[in-house]
Design brief:
mainly alpha, Endonuclease Iii, domain 2, Endonuclease III, domain 1, 13 helices
């Protein structure tokens, strides 16, 4: 199953490993300082939160999530029977409303996922309508603490890599996934580093 990121010491260990092998990461760490832990409780709420964050700004995702919580819609039993009108009223698109209900009804064994290998976690989650690779990988990184999962489809990671590594164009998902192979077994820490670098370079958050 690989290393699990439990606390700040794990992040520091991974950052030191990356800095010792990749000069650009060493330079970036001097700019961004200590990296955030970004660990969340696993389960329905964490995966719904990732769906909410798909293709919207961090500020928008935060505002929508607050309205979902206020309406009790982060409870899977409530979400499963919510109407389009109820979900649209808190800011979810029609598509995300469907995804939220599909997830609530899917019966995912969240406890069982904790003991499964990374590729099985991702495969299980992407089988649920509305859960793509990005969402599954974000869940594996933040909710399960997987140290060697990366999310190369993330636009902020792509842009941060372009700037940090002096690339002529933003790398696509396939190119960035290939680049990240050299950062194993700490690819999730590399992601945190790139998100932090994006915040410094672009003066805005790239991930919630």
């Amino acid at each position: 199953m690989g290393r699990i990121i439990e606390g700040p010491d794990c992040i520091a260990e991974g950052a030191a490993w990356l800095a010792a092998r990749v000069p650009q990461f060493a330079a970036a760490l001097e700019e961004v300082g200590p990296l955030p832990l970004r660990r969340h409780a696993d389960g329905f709420g964490a995966l719904l939160d990732a769906i909410v964050g798909q293709q919207v700004s961090v500020a928008s995702a935060r505002a929508i999530w607050a309205r979902l919580e206020a309406a009790g819609l982060t409870d899977p039993a409530v979400m499963a029977v919510a109407t389009d009108e109820e979900l649209r009223s808190v800011g979810l698109s029609r598509q995300k409303a469907r995804y939220g209900r599909e997830l609530a009804r899917a019966g995912v064994d969240f406890v069982g996922l904790r003991g499964r290998p990374d590729h099985e976690v991702v495969a299980t989650l992407v089988a649920v309508p509305g859960i793509g690779m990005w969402t599954a990988e974000i869940y594996a990184m933040f909710a399960l603490g997987r140290a060697d999962v990366f999310a190369p489809g993330d636009l902020a990671l792509q842009e941060a890599a372009r700037v940090l590594f002096g690339l002529e164009a933003r790398p696509g998902e396939r190119q960035l996934r290939a680049m990240a192979e050299a950062w194993s077994p700490w690819r999730a820490v590399a992601a945190r580093l790139l998100w932090s670098y994006y915040r410094v370079a672009k003066s805005r958050e790239g991930i919630r």
